[in-house]
From TrEMBL:
Phylogenetic classification of the source organism: Bacteria, Bacillati, Bacillota, Clostridia, Halanaerobiales
Family, per entry: Belongs to the DNA glycosylase MPG family.
Protein name: Putative 3-methyladenine DNA glycosylase
Highest taxon above the source species: Bacteria
Keywords: DNA damage, DNA repair, Hydrolase
InterPro entries cross-referenced by the UniProt entry: Formyl_transferase-like_C_sf, MPG, MPG_sf
Gene Ontology molecular function, alphabetical: alkylbase DNA N-glycosylase activity; DNA binding
EC number assigned by the record: 3.2.2.-
EC top class named in words: hydrolase
Coiled coil: none
HAMAP family linked to this entry: 3MGH (MF_00527)
Organism of origin: Orenia metallireducens
Pfam families registered for this protein in UniProt: Pur_DNA_glyco
GO biological-process terms attached to the record: base-excision repair
Length: 195
DNA sequence: TAAGTGATTTGCT
DNA sequence: GCAAATCACTTAA
């Protein structure tokens, strides 16, 4: 079952937790890549200093976050890496969940085609936000993509048993007190979780 | 550990 | 308009 609008149309922190263990599906060129979401972070617009849309700052880039829940928010960071977020809450509320890491389930060959690395370790394919985007061939063409409707990128429901760990977010030193927020979630013991 | 990388935003004109 | 600063990361040592 594909996750529907009502799943995303909730508080970003809850959506972030509930997305763990769900299946992220990417289809392209007739190939299907299925991966399990193992790590997420919540970005809560108006109050969160780490969020691009802090204090409801609305620019061309953050526009998508103000839009409908279930849309993909993809942006380029550090000049070369894409990050995948899913917009949550309702229209006008800039909230999103960053997908930080996934575990490949199906379509390893396709993943390797898009992300060629020296490392033999499977973990290195998708254990980070930029890596997973390379692996799934996600770029800005998919920005604003409707994941509750489209077939190229969406999330399937699942019933994995898992233990959720709450932690501080990382790599957002500039966010001052908000970097202490426990808005990062990951599956305990999963090898694909980034440091 | 450190540096590369360029789109985006901001703060001047 | 243009220039400078910023940055939700990765890789190779």
């Amino acid at each position: 079952m594909k996750l529907k609008l009502d799943f995303y149309q909730r508080d970003g922190v809850n959506v972030a937790q509930d997305l763990l263990g769900k299946l992220l599906v990417r289809e392209l060129d007739g190939q299907k890549i299925i991966s399990k979401i193992v790590e997420t972070e919540a970005y809560i617009g108006p109050e969160d200093k780490a969020c691009h849309a802090y204090q409801n700052k609305r620019t061309k880039r953050t526009e998508v976050m103000f839009g409908r829940a279930g849309n993909a928010y993809i942006y380029l960071i550090y000049g070369m890496y894409n990050c995948l977020n899913i917009v949550t809450a309702s229209v006008g509320k800039p909230e999103a969940v960053l997908i930080r890491a996934v575990e490949p389930i199906e379509g390893l060959d396709t993943i390797r085609k898009y992300r060629q690395i020296k490392s033999k370790k499977v973990e290195d394919l998708t254990n980070g936000p930029g890596k997973l985007c390379q692996a799934l061939a996600i770029d800005k063409k998919l920005n604003g993509y409707d994941m509750t409707y489209g077939d190229k990128l969406y999330v399937l429901d699942s019933n994995y048993k898992l233990e959720v760990v709450k932690d501080k977010r990382i790599n957002i030193d500039y966010a001052e007190e908000y970097k202490e927020k426990l808005w990062r979630f990951y599956i305990k013991g999963n090898p694909f979780v980034s440091r």
